[in-house]
What we know:
By secondary structure, the chain is mostly helical. It folds into two domains: 4-184 and 297-326, 3-Layer(aba) Sandwich (Rossmann fold), CATH 3.40.50.620; 204-291, Tyrosyl-Transfer RNA Synthetase (Orthogonal Bundle). The chain has helices at 18-30, 44-47, 54-70, 88-97, 102-106, 109-117, 124-138, 152-169, 214-223, 239-252, 256-262, 268-295, 297-326, and strands spanning 4-10, 36-42, 80-82, 144-146, 177-179. The protein starts with a strand and ends with a helix. The structure holds adenosine-5'-triphosphate and L-tryptophanamide (LTN).
Amino acid sequence: MDKKIILSGIKPTGIPTLGNYIGALRNWRLMQEDDKYCYYMVADLHALTVRNDPAELRQQTRSMAALLIACGIDPNRSPLFIQSHVHQHAELSWILGCVTYMGELNRMTQFKDKSAKHADNINAGLYTYPVLMASDILIYGADLVPVGDDQKQHVELARNIAIRFNNAFGETFVVPEPVMPKFGARIMGLQDPEHKMSKTDTNPNGYISMLDEPAVITKKFKKAITDCEPTIAYAEGRYGCNNLLTIYCACTGKTMDEAVKEFEGFGYGKLKTAVADAVIAELEPIQAVYRQYMDDSEELDRIIARGAQQASERAQITLDKAYKAVGIR
Ligand code: ATP
Ligand code: LTN
């Protein structure tokens, strides 16, 4: 049986949050099974779409690679690489851009959100961002793309691009599908539970960073915005409470019914302490492995160099095929 191919990426725009972990990174680890072959990358080219400090980008890219290994990505099994080290992505992106309609890009909600947030820098890269992402996915022939809810629209665009290209130029690309976790495809901010938790939030109390110390995690959950209802329940409109329960279920493996029952008759104090403890138990072992890799920079360099080589060999095959299909070469 052919193995299913998996590809996913994360931007090195800061330390990943609990949202990134529950929505995506944890699933990346879980997808490394015998019937699958996974490619995982740090999307540094995508990080350029917002204004960046070069030294910080360099540092955050390495740190993200170390954190991915700490999250359980096994580089001996799944190539782990930096997007820009595989030059074929940017090359295929040009070809795909020529079969993508502006109307499609205009509909992308991330573009609208980021344009509103960075009104002084609405650059063309921000606009064509989903085309590069389609290239990341299609160049490996990925069947499945593990992402959080906010990236589903981009994976759907990659599907449409693949189908359109195949119809115009003959079977070239595998048509990919997004994969999202059962719990936590959209973890909300702790200070604004109507918006997703984001690593670039200006208020650090709004997110749990994967490298936060246990005492900081506890403090942030204590400050989390909830509501004035006397009971704990998963219900329409109770954004803060729903979010805490979702995080609790994602970190403990309990069902929502089990979680709600557990907190019957208790208030937010108990729920917040229990969520904090569950998150600390999940993140502490990851933080320890992260520090080991950050202390051994040669080993990290070896891993990402090997990842780039493995990824690049595979990417070149698809790029050649795409060039040939359109009549170049
Ligand atoms: P930025 O704040 O720089 O836009 P981000 O926190 O949204 O970044 P990304 O690098 O864009 O993070 O996302 C990496 C992965 O994490 C993606 O699959 C994305 O869907 C997922 N993800 C991001 N935020 C959340 C969230 N709050 N809940 C669940 N999944 C999330
Ligand atoms: N756009 C994604 C990061 C990303 C990605 C990818 C995810 C870049 N390339 C390919 C999945 C597949 C984001 O903003 N989270």
